[in-house]
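ESCALATION

Customer reports they have been waiting on this structure for their group meeting. Please prioritize. Original submission:
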Amino acid sequence: MLSSVVALVLVSLTLWHLVTSRILSAWDDPALDKPGGPPAVAVLPFHAASDGEPLGDEIAEDLIAHLSELDSFPVVARDESFVYRTGAVDAKRVGRALAVRYVVEGDVLRAGDRIGLQVRVFDARTARPVWAEELEIEPAELAAAQQRLARLVASAVLLDARPSP
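Update from on-call: job pushed to the front of the queue and completed.
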Protein backbone atom coordinates (compact mmCIF):
# COMPACT_ATOMS: atom_id res chain seq x y z
CA MET A 1 0.00 0.00 0.00
CA LEU A 2 2.77 2.43 0.98
CA SER A 3 4.67 1.68 -2.23
CA SER A 4 1.55 2.52 -4.27
CA VAL A 5 1.22 5.89 -2.52
CA VAL A 6 4.91 6.67 -3.04
CA ALA A 7 4.65 5.69 -6.73
CA LEU A 8 1.56 7.88 -7.15
CA VAL A 9 3.30 10.83 -5.50
CA LEU A 10 6.37 10.40 -7.71
CA VAL A 11 4.27 10.20 -10.88
CA SER A 12 2.28 13.27 -9.81
CA LEU A 13 5.43 15.26 -9.07
CA THR A 14 6.97 14.25 -12.39
CA LEU A 15 3.85 15.28 -14.32
CA TRP A 16 3.63 18.56 -12.39
CA HIS A 17 7.29 19.29 -13.18
CA LEU A 18 6.82 18.55 -16.91
CA VAL A 19 3.72 20.70 -17.22
CA THR A 20 5.07 23.68 -15.26
CA SER A 21 8.44 23.60 -17.02
CA ARG A 22 6.67 23.80 -20.40
CA ILE A 23 4.53 26.69 -19.24
CA LEU A 24 7.51 28.56 -17.79
CA SER A 25 9.65 27.94 -20.87
CA ALA A 26 6.87 29.37 -23.04
CA TRP A 27 6.88 32.52 -20.90
CA ASP A 28 10.66 32.79 -21.13
CA ASP A 29 10.74 32.28 -24.90
CA PRO A 30 13.28 34.80 -26.20
CA ALA A 31 11.47 35.16 -29.53
CA LEU A 32 9.91 38.60 -29.45
CA ASP A 33 7.91 38.34 -32.64
CA LYS A 34 5.35 35.68 -31.75
CA PRO A 35 2.58 34.56 -34.11
CA GLY A 36 -0.62 36.40 -33.33
CA GLY A 37 1.17 38.98 -31.20
CA PRO A 38 2.29 42.48 -32.07
CA PRO A 39 5.30 42.64 -34.40
CA ALA A 40 8.66 43.15 -32.72
CA VAL A 41 11.03 45.93 -33.82
CA ALA A 42 14.80 46.40 -33.67
CA VAL A 43 16.33 49.89 -34.02
CA LEU A 44 19.91 49.71 -35.24
CA PRO A 45 22.50 52.41 -34.58
CA PHE A 46 22.24 55.20 -37.12
CA HIS A 47 25.25 55.62 -39.40
CA ALA A 48 26.99 58.95 -38.93
CA ALA A 49 28.76 60.50 -41.91
CA SER A 50 31.78 61.34 -39.77
CA ASP A 51 33.46 58.59 -37.75
CA GLY A 52 33.36 59.06 -34.01
CA GLU A 53 30.13 61.07 -34.21
CA PRO A 54 27.97 59.94 -31.26
CA LEU A 55 24.81 61.55 -32.64
CA GLY A 56 23.85 58.41 -34.61
CA ASP A 57 23.88 56.31 -31.43
CA GLU A 58 22.04 58.99 -29.45
CA ILE A 59 19.27 59.24 -32.04
CA ALA A 60 18.83 55.46 -32.19
CA GLU A 61 18.81 55.21 -28.37
CA ASP A 62 16.17 57.93 -28.10
CA LEU A 63 14.11 56.28 -30.83
CA ILE A 64 14.23 52.98 -28.90
CA ALA A 65 13.09 54.80 -25.75
CA HIS A 66 10.26 56.66 -27.51
CA LEU A 67 9.02 53.51 -29.28
CA SER A 68 9.10 51.62 -25.99
CA GLU A 69 7.06 54.36 -24.31
CA LEU A 70 4.37 54.04 -26.98
CA ASP A 71 3.91 50.41 -25.81
CA SER A 72 2.49 49.36 -29.20
CA PHE A 73 4.89 46.48 -29.80
CA PRO A 74 8.04 44.89 -28.34
CA VAL A 75 11.28 46.78 -29.02
CA VAL A 76 14.67 45.08 -28.83
CA ALA A 77 17.03 46.46 -26.20
CA ARG A 78 19.89 48.69 -27.26
CA ASP A 79 22.57 46.20 -26.21
CA GLU A 80 21.18 43.58 -28.57
CA SER A 81 20.53 45.77 -31.60
CA PHE A 82 23.76 47.79 -31.37
CA VAL A 83 25.74 44.64 -32.17
CA TYR A 84 24.92 45.56 -35.80
CA ARG A 85 26.85 48.83 -35.69
CA THR A 86 29.19 48.37 -38.63
CA GLY A 87 28.82 47.61 -42.31
CA ALA A 88 25.86 47.02 -44.53
CA VAL A 89 22.83 45.59 -42.79
CA ASP A 90 20.96 42.55 -44.07
CA ALA A 91 17.45 43.05 -42.67
CA LYS A 92 16.60 39.35 -43.04
CA ARG A 93 19.67 38.25 -41.09
CA VAL A 94 19.05 40.83 -38.36
CA GLY A 95 15.39 39.85 -38.18
CA ARG A 96 16.21 36.17 -37.72
CA ALA A 97 19.00 36.84 -35.20
CA LEU A 98 16.91 39.22 -33.06
CA ALA A 99 13.52 37.53 -33.65
CA VAL A 100 11.91 40.70 -34.99
CA ARG A 101 9.64 41.45 -37.90
CA TYR A 102 10.82 45.01 -38.50
CA VAL A 103 14.26 46.59 -38.60
CA VAL A 104 14.74 50.36 -38.34
CA GLU A 105 17.96 51.94 -39.57
CA GLY A 106 19.08 55.40 -40.53
CA ASP A 107 21.77 57.91 -41.36
CA VAL A 108 22.80 61.17 -39.71
CA LEU A 109 24.63 63.96 -41.48
CA ARG A 110 25.73 67.23 -39.92
CA ALA A 111 25.95 70.08 -42.41
CA GLY A 112 26.96 73.28 -40.66
CA ASP A 113 24.26 74.10 -38.15
CA ARG A 114 21.75 71.66 -39.66
CA ILE A 115 21.20 67.95 -39.04
CA GLY A 116 20.01 65.65 -41.80
CA LEU A 117 18.20 62.46 -40.79
CA GLN A 118 17.23 59.56 -43.01
CA VAL A 119 15.16 56.81 -41.39
CA ARG A 120 14.09 53.54 -43.00
CA VAL A 121 11.89 50.65 -41.82
CA PHE A 122 12.29 47.21 -43.40
CA ASP A 123 10.14 44.11 -43.16
CA ALA A 124 12.73 41.61 -41.92
CA ARG A 125 10.94 38.66 -43.49
CA THR A 126 11.46 39.98 -47.03
CA ALA A 127 13.93 42.90 -46.61
CA ARG A 128 11.26 45.00 -48.29
CA PRO A 129 11.31 48.71 -47.40
CA VAL A 130 8.09 49.57 -45.60
CA TRP A 131 8.62 53.26 -44.92
CA ALA A 132 11.25 55.99 -45.21
CA GLU A 133 11.54 59.61 -44.17
CA GLU A 134 14.14 62.36 -44.60
CA LEU A 135 14.32 65.36 -42.30
CA GLU A 136 16.57 68.38 -42.13
CA ILE A 137 16.40 70.07 -38.75
CA GLU A 138 18.09 72.53 -36.45
CA PRO A 139 19.84 71.02 -33.42
CA ALA A 140 17.24 72.68 -31.15
CA GLU A 141 14.50 70.73 -32.98
CA LEU A 142 16.11 67.32 -32.42
CA ALA A 143 14.04 66.21 -29.42
CA ALA A 144 10.73 67.05 -31.11
CA ALA A 145 11.90 65.40 -34.34
CA GLN A 146 12.76 62.18 -32.49
CA GLN A 147 9.31 62.00 -30.91
CA ARG A 148 7.74 62.64 -34.31
CA LEU A 149 9.90 59.94 -35.90
CA ALA A 150 8.88 57.45 -33.21
CA ARG A 151 5.20 58.09 -33.91
CA LEU A 152 5.78 57.79 -37.67
CA VAL A 153 7.77 54.56 -37.31
CA ALA A 154 5.10 53.10 -35.02
CA SER A 155 2.36 54.04 -37.47
CA ALA A 156 4.25 52.52 -40.39
CA VAL A 157 4.89 49.28 -38.49
CA LEU A 158 1.32 48.93 -37.24
CA LEU A 159 -0.15 49.80 -40.63
CA ASP A 160 2.07 47.31 -42.45
CA ALA A 161 1.51 44.57 -39.86
CA ARG A 162 -2.26 44.65 -39.90
CA PRO A 163 -3.93 41.74 -41.66
CA SER A 164 -4.97 42.22 -45.27
CA PRO A 165 -8.73 42.34 -45.80
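Sent to customer with the following note: Residues 2-27 form the longest helix (26 residues).
Escalation resolved.
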